């Protein structure tokens, strides 16, 4: 790496990330449109911090995770990993960085190879990247199992012998085997029961601070994201709608979608059973979305200009950015140039 | 008031080739007319098994009801013959399942499927059935209902499919609707819509709702009374505010403390160590004792009684009960 990372330097900076999937139909397989899974995403992750990425199904959050790890090629945009633009790196150029970036998947049943012992699974990365010679690897596997709270003697057992929570621990050990600095956690606790979920969240949090990891934590669960994240980005139909430090986002959500999302989370307290403002409509399909604001179809504040113009990402305070001009109305001096006035 | 549904000391086992899994071990609960009862617990605790046994749709074998009674409107469903059950099922008791995509038949239109219960239980002509189906879809807040009747399940969104499922359940004006994780597969903004729909329907039609879920947030939003299940046993039951504000079982207390949330940031989450026991190899005594921080020697050998905390709040933990009595008398 050419630029040494200082403690406050971002691990990851993403500008204008785009990924469109063509949809082909008919005998000639003509492209009839695009699923705009990721449509201009900006993200910023500081070293040692956790960035939560929330959104409903189909909003493109998992695609973002895969693009950042270069498991898919982006159509446009820049991905700066510790200051180096990796968006155009090919397989070979990525090889030295691979060990720095890892992923933990949602489904602890589907993401472990049933024909490999958990020891072999954890060891695989070390072997392929040639990090440790054979004899040392066994010791490292045992150390990793201990780290995630599994008896090291279990290395010779197969995934089906473990419960869902233990399998997820194996998934964590596999990701950490190559000593990464940046880990994408894609819905890592969504398939787990509440009592087990807490164990895994604590484990991720604890390992994160001990090993100085930076996480991109992808989830649909606002309670989990609110608990674990330093910064939160809210995604809707391929766009980041709002991003802010976690406390700001939960205390002062600005975007109508963020507000609706927070409002919709059921509060585990029967005394707070208020009639909720309900967001009408359905989560729209990312196939050929409308021009203008992606949220226009469900937004209570929608106006003509929202349907016509792309909405810029406004600065609305300390590290607080929001993609909605309604909430920016009445804030003096914040409107960037070139933004049409209301009613234009 | 007599309960509409009363499950009494229900035991259900699944017989395997070598082992027998005891899915339910003496489960009892009541649903009164017009109330919402939540069965809450983690996967494998037996909440769905108890619901399936009410409707007589457990896979027998391997399942087997070994003991107990299920009284609905005063009649024991377990001793009823298949004709009698068919008369109750879909008519007096209806069920809404978790996965609207797999529980709707992909080759029939929504209209066909909602009308099915009416054709089976009511002598109505096709025109009347059509009108009734359309009005049911309107009732559940489906946009353009007439058109949706002709649609196939794949043409609807997840939320719309669940609305169609609810319309099916309501077709014959049942007294009891059993909903098994009806919002688990849905996004939160859609979940709110469905929860509000249940609440609204209940107010309008006065039906009883047995709502099964693992999500404590959802429970807090809709339950009148709650039964907390663990490993085939009712661990605790009471009114919603009792369970959430004064939980009297270490398992309930642990579950509530382990909920992540923004307000708990910076502190480690409480976690219940260990895992849910395999139903084929349940521990002796209290099924929760291997994970319980309060476990005493007696918990390992004796099955705990339900202790009465007053005002219909009961919990199966004698240790907490004796501790509080000792404090009260001290």
Task: Return the string of H and E elements of chain A.
Answer: EEEHEEHEHHHEHEHEEHHHEE
Instruction: Identify the CATH architecture of chain A.
Output: 3-Layer(aba) Sandwich
Summarize the amount of helix of chain A as a percent range.
Answer: 25-40%
β-strand percent of chain A reads 15-25%
**Biggest β-sheet strands, sense, barrel of chain A:** 8 strands, mixed
What is shown here, in short?
The complex is a heterodimer of chains A (344) and B (330). Chain A has helices spanning 61-68, 91-98, 118-128, 134-147, 164-176, 194-211, 222-228, 246-251, 256-264, 304-308; strands spanning 10-25, 30-46, 50-54, 76-81, 84-85, 101-104, 182-186, 214-219, 231-236, 239-245, 314-315, 321-322.
Protein described:
The complex is a heterodimer of chains A (344) and B (330). Chain A is α/β, with parallel strands linked by helices. Chain A has 10 helices and 12 strands. Chain A has one domain (10-100, 180-338): Rossmann fold (3-Layer(aba) Sandwich), CATH 3.40.50.300. Chain A has helices at 61-68, 91-98, 118-128, 134-147, 164-176, 194-211, 222-228, 246-251, 256-264, 304-308, and strands at residues 10-25, 30-46, 50-54, 76-81, 84-85, 101-104, 182-186, 214-219, 231-236, 239-245, 314-315, 321-322. In chain A, the strands form 2 sheets. An 8-stranded mixed beta sheet of chain A has the order 6-7-8-3-9-10-12-11, with helices on both faces. Chain A is globular. Chain B has an 8-stranded mixed beta sheet, sandwiched between helices. A 4-stranded antiparallel beta sheet of chain B has the order 2-1-4-5, covered by helices on one side. In chain B, a hairpin with a 2-residue loop joins strand 9 and strand 10. In chain B, helix 4 (110-121) packs parallel to helix 7 and helix 5 packs across helix 7. Chain B is globular and about 70 Å long. Chain B starts with a strand and ends with a helix. The chains are: A alpha/beta (344), B alpha/beta (330). At the A-B interface, helix 6, helix 7, helix 8 and helix 9 of A face helix 7, helix 8, helix 9, helix 10 and helix 11 of B.
């Amino acid at each position: 790496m050419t630029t040494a990372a200082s403690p406050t330097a971002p691990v990851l900076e993403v500008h204008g990330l785009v990924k469109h999937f063509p949809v082909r139909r008919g005998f000639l397989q003509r492209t009839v449109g695009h699923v705009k899974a990721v449509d201009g995403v900006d993200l910023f992750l500081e070293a040692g911090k956790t960035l939560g990425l929330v959104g409903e199904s189909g909003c493109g959050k998992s695609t973002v995770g895969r693009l950042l790890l270069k498991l898919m090629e982006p159509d446009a945009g820049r991905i700066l990993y510790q200051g180096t633009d990796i968006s155009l790196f090919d397989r070979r150029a990525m090889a030295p960085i691979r060990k720095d970036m890892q992923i933990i998947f949602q489904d602890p049943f589907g993401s472990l190879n049933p024909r490999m012992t958990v020891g072999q699974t954890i060891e695989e990365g070390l072997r392929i990247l040639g990090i440790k010679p054979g004899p040392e690897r066994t010791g490292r596997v045992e150390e990793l199992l201990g780290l995630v709270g599994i008896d090291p003697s279990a290395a010779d057992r197969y995934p089906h012998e473990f419960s869902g929570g233990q399998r997820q621990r194996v998934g964590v050990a596999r990701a950490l085997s190559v000593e990464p600095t940046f880990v994408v956690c894609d819905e890592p606790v969504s398939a787990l029961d509440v009592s087990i979920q807490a164990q895994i969240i604590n484990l991720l949090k604890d390992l994160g601070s001990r090993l100085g990891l930076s996480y991109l934590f992808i989830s649909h669960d606002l309670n989990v994201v609110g608990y674990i994240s330093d910064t939160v980005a809210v995604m809707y139909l391929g766009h980041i709608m709002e991003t802010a430090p976690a406390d700001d986002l939960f205390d002062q959500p600005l975007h109508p979608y963020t507000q609706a999302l927070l409002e919709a989370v059921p509060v585990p307290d029967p005394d707070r059973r208020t009639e909720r403002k309900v967001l009408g409509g359905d989560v729209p399909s990312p196939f050929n979305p409308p021009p203008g604001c992606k949220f226009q179809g469900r937004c209570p504040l929608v106006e003509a200009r929202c349907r016509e113009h792309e909405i810029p990402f406004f600065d609305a305070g300390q590290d607080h950015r929001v993609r909605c001009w309604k909430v920016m109305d009445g804030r003096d001096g914040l409107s960037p140039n070139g933004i049409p006035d209301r009613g234009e | 008031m007599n309960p509409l549904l009363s499950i009494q000391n229900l035991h259900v086992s699944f017989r395997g080739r070598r082992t027998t899994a005891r899915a339910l071990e003496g489960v009892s609960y009541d649903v009164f007319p017009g109330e919402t009862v939540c069965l809450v617990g983690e996967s494998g605790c037996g909440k769905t098994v108890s619901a399936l046994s009410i409707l007589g749709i457990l896979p027998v074998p391997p399942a087997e009801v070994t003991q107990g009674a299920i009284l609905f409107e005063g009649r024991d469903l377990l001793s009823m013959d298949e004709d009698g059950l068919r008369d109750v099922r879909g008519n007096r008791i209806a069920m809404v399942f978790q996965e609207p995509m797999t529980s709707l038949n992909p080759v029939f239109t929504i209209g066909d499927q909602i009308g099915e219960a009416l054709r089976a239980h009511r002598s109505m002509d096709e025109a009347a059935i059509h009108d009734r189906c359309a009005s049911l879809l309107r009732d559940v807040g489906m946009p353009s209902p007439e058109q949706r009747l002709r649609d196939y399940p794949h043409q609807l969104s997840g939320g719309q499919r669940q609305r169609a499922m609810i319309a099916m359940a309501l077709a014959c004006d049942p007294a009891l609707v059993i909903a098994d994780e009806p919002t688990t597969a849905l996004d939160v903004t859609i979940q709110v819509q469905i929860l509000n729909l249940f609440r609204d329907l209940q107010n309008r039609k006065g039906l009883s709702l047995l709502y099964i879920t693992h999500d404590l947030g959802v429970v807090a939003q809709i339950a009148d009374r709650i039964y907390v299940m663990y490993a085939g046993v009712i661990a605790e039951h009471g009114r919603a505010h009792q369970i959430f504000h004064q939980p009297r079982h270490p398992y309930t207390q642990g579950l509530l403390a382990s909920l992540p949330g923004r307000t708990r940031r910076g502190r480690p989450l409480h976690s219940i160590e260990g895992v849910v026991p395999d139903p084929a190899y349940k521990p002796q005594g209290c099924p929760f004792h291997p994970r319980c921080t309060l476990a005493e020697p007696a918990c390992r050998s004796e099955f705990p009684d339900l202790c009465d905390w007053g005002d219909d709040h009961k919990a199966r933990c004698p240790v907490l009960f004796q501790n509080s009595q000792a404090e009260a008398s001290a």
